[in-house]
Design a protein that fits this description.
It contains 6 helices and no strands. The protein has 127 residues and is an all-alpha fold.
């Protein structure tokens, strides 16, 4: 998994040629769970069933729900990731500087800000 592929999954999963139909419907499931859960109806579950068993749909939904809840909860606390995009353990002040007020792609500014604050360790930063 690369940052490019993660961004593609966030920004362009519906039209991307980098994902299978099964992956696209799973990404749509995640998107809908976060933004429009009322749109997850029987017709949508039927689309999921073209690629996943009932057990897999339940597991995927549970995982998505847990992650949405996790991010929502930590957002209410003003909690930022413990690691910078280049893998360094950082304190909350540096993480806030890196990630800003809203979630963003590592490729859209966070990586550059992380490397600017890394000092000598930025030479070893993974891209």
């Amino acid at each position: 998994m690369t940052e490019d592929l993660i961004d593609e999954g966030i920004d362009n999963y519906k039209t991307s040629d980098k994902f299978t139909d099964a992956e696209k419907v799973a990404l749509e499931y995640s998107d809908l769970m976060d933004t429009a859960p009322e749109k997850i109806d029987q017709a949508f579950y039927d689309r999921l069933k073209e690629h996943y068993s009932t057990e897999e749909i339940v597991e995927l939904g549970s995982f998505i729900g847990f992650n949405i809840g996790y991010h929502t909860f930590f957002g209410t606390l003003g909690f930022y990731p413990m690691f910078s995009p280049d893998g360094r353990l950082v304190d909350q002040e540096e993480s806030r500087r890196i990630y800003g007020d809203t979630p963003m792609s590592h490729l859209k500014g966070a990586m550059q800000r992380a490397q600017e604050g890394a000092g000598d360790s930025s030479e070893d930063a993974a891209e």
